[in-house]
Automatic annotation (TrEMBL):
Presence of keyword Oxidoreductase: yes
Any one GO MF annotation of this record: dioxygenase activity
Alphabetized UniProt keyword annotations: Dioxygenase, Oxidoreductase, Plasmid
Name of this chain's protein: 3-phenylpropionate dioxygenase subunit beta
Amino acid sequence: MTVQTVPMLDEIPVADELLRRIERFYYREARLLDREAYADWLTLLDPGIRYWMPAMETRKRGDQRGPWTDGEMSYFDDDFAMLRVRVARYEQPSAWADNPATRHLHIVTNIEAIETGTPGLVRAFSCFENVRNRNEKDQDIIHGRREDLLKVGDGRITIAERRILIVQNILLSKNLNTFF
């Protein structure tokens, strides 16, 4: 699947009941990530997922490429198999970057969902703040937006695509041992 941007004037919001389900889904996802319940978090992802966080570049407003370009540098461009590898790494004793454990806080807000025109697929937008604290003084705060393609059906919601767009041009974090 390819992420498509729909002109804002043509957007059709999902029904309020579905929007509430999507909000609850995102709040549960944040709680799982905060608790480092990564195996449970993986169950929220579609096996065909693209989990992509492009690097942001400072470009002039007239540059048609915008602040990021598919195929250029990214922090993550993972499929489900790679996400499973990353999750499995946290469970290894050699994951010294997470010992002692990182304390996470995921705040999710500005949740919107629009129809895609394809039954069972919904485009969702959200903003986040990801706070990570380690040891006594290591703290990172990353802000951004997420643009997701959600599969909705059979009583569940899964993330088929996630594009993570951070506001920072340069990340000063020592590592990116987190999910967004």
